[in-house]
Structure prediction request, 669 residues.
Amino acid sequence: MTRAGSACPLDCPDACSLEVQVENGIAIAVGGTRVNPLTAGYICAKVRRFPEHVHGPARVRDPGIRVGTKGEGRFRTASWEEALDLIASKMAALSASGQGEAILPVSYGGSNGYLSQDTTDARLFSRLGASRFARTVCSAPSSRAAVGLYGKMAGIALDDYAHAKLAVVWGANPHASGIHLLPHLQAARRAGGRLVVLDPRQTRLAAEADLHLPLRPGTDLPVALAVHRWLFANGAADIAFLEKHATGWEELRRRAERWTIARAAAVAGVLEEDLERFARWYAESAPAAIRCGWGLERNRNGGSATAAILALPAVAGKFGVRGGGYTLSNSAVWELDSLRSARTEPSPAREINMNRTGEALLDRDRPVRVLFVYNCNPLMTLPEQEKVRKGLEREDLFTVVFDPVMTDTALYADVVLPATTFLERTEVSRGYGAYVLQEAEAVIPPVGQSRPNHDVFAELCRRAGVERPGDASTGAELTREILAGNPSGPSWRASFDRQSPGAPPFGRNPIQFVDVFPRTADRRAHLCPPELDAEAAPSGLYGYREDPATAAHPLALVSPATDQTISTTLGELRREIAIMEMHPADALARGISSGDRVSASNASGQVSCIVRVAPTLRPGVVSVPKGLWSHNTFGGSTANAVVPDTLADLGGGACFNDARVEVERLPAG
Ligand SMILES: Nc1nc2c(c(=O)[nH]1)N[C@H]1C(S)=C(S)[C@@H](COP(=O)(O)OP(=O)(O)OC[C@H]3O[C@@H](n4cnc5c(=O)[nH]c(N)nc54)[C@H](O)[C@@H]3O)O[C@H]1N2
Ligand SMILES: Nc1nc2c(c(=O)[nH]1)N[C@H]1C(S)=C(S)[C@@H](COP(=O)(O)OP(=O)(O)OC[C@H]3O[C@@H](n4cnc5c(=O)[nH]c(N)nc54)[C@H](O)[C@@H]3O)O[C@H]1N2
Ligand code: SF4
Ligand SMILES: [Mo]
Prediction:
């Protein structure tokens, strides 16, 4: 048995450093190391099961060509040669006849590594003139807000939460979605700090908190604006800081004026005294840290809500000390994205919003003819699932799915291609919470005939006739090109190896407004930026959009992350029927008890599973896990069957938590 170092590139803030035990080319166990200090030697239970994912029966081992009907998932084994020639010839023919836009690449995070996205894939699709795909399914509204206000300034390092006298965890659930923040929140509390959680559900963290505001989904905006109003009205706004470091604060103040504590509390369905206590604690405490998550962006008000939350430390004067300020995503601080091939070759082709993939696949006027899915499981993760399914069923659509495992989407493929997992290739990845950049070599040989993304897309460039001399295409060439983008250049490369992961250019654990400043043109915080205001029309930035509930569909259905999958990744290992949670009052009104089979439905579709009646949810809200596979529900559809493809106020973001449904009990059996 040997032990080899690796790094987890999955879609998670923590970027754990790993140790993998290998026997005869098989990964048998995965654990944490201290190379990334945040990891502190432990990892989540999901990735401890990664060997079952890598070597399990769901693994795609060879290229396959469809022999059955779409959705059935019957394939004959093909050679890479045959599969790639078939795909390349179809795409090249469309491109040559001026129909490049009929090619749609659908991809999202996959395993989030730098080599596996926006390298040779971007080159292939832009040179073919394929439709551009706007990756809006996650973090689009919040990153628009963060960039608009602060130009994506680096956030509080997660271990610096230990210094906070008040830690606010807002729309994030670190027990599931980023476990290495938890010890630092606990340390802060042991040192006498308070914890406030804003979440419609009573999560484990909320149950332990000094204050839990169980607000209605989509009402973070009025809540944050009421805190702003309270700060200004009670002499707790730091006017000296605002005059020196901010613009737009008078306008923010004006827009917050209508949101008294009483009015916001009524709209959000929380107690007035709780909301006022939160405002007072925030004003009084220093350092005060806000961990802003992504649960609050997934609705019609998501962009404005994030902006209002991120503006709080500026108005209350919370920057300038260790453990004061905010954290959202830290991914942009690496400044590596700009050099990726995707941006160096801009394409004039039409853009398709990821959240409208179903519509795009059903569009008869400008039809998609070749769909290329990689790093994504669109049938399970995108809004309006029935539209996506109908699109995938089209006989005149040629679908390629490139994935390490046979996902529900892959069952609809005309060609499946086997991808390596990160244990089987070189990968460069960074944390979007933890400030580490890591390079990891393969620790086991590729399973079956699987190949890394960058290699397959480079090969497709060749076969489709769009390769150009000098294109970086090997892992080593691409790594060099990607790392050259960092401002510290070669010296930074030297500090970057597996034993001591690269730290960002500013060094470790920045203090906001001391070590790092807004990356806006004037280095000020823009608290009401005109470009966001225009984008958020007609309501404008900070304009509240009402709840979409109707009498027929009164319940809000949220679908947050769980500790068992990362989106749908690893979901083949989880076979049980999913649990919907519902408040006792809502259950009573519908004659529902724990253990019943239930169905949540609206005009778009329905999702059926087993219910647990629990007071951990507020009345009027039900919850179904994110990341389900078809085997986790009765009937095979997931929460996305009832999720609308409406868009958030900023960034064209998804509105997963704007699903409004009615729930009924299904006959037993
Ligand atoms: N185990 C695991 N880890 C993950 C993931 C995973 O699927 N599983 N996914 C990864 C990815 S892709 C992401 S983006 C992050 C997401 O991680 P988080 O930021 O934690 O996002 P969510 O799980 O969507 O939602 C967090 C919380 O927001 C609450 N919420 C829902 N609606 C609202 C609202 O309107 N307002 C407020 N204040 N709260 C609301 C939910 O009840 C939930 O408890 O996690 C990453 N880490
Ligand atoms: N209802 C509801 N739906 C949601 C959300 C929600 O809150 N509610 N959250 C959304 C969020 S936050 C996100 S980020 C999206 C994520 O949605 P997706 O991007 O679809 O994420 P996954 O479901 O994890 O699918 C990623 C796929 O990439 C594959 N993959 C991993 N590594 C590689 C690789 O190296 N190469 C290739 N070719 N494939 C690879 C995995 O096996 C997996 O099948 O889901 C969204 N969907
Ligand atoms: S998913 Fe997150 S917590 Fe789990 S091993 Fe990867 S980085 Fe660590
Ligand atoms: Mo996400």
The CA atoms of residues 237 and 315 lie 5 Å apart.
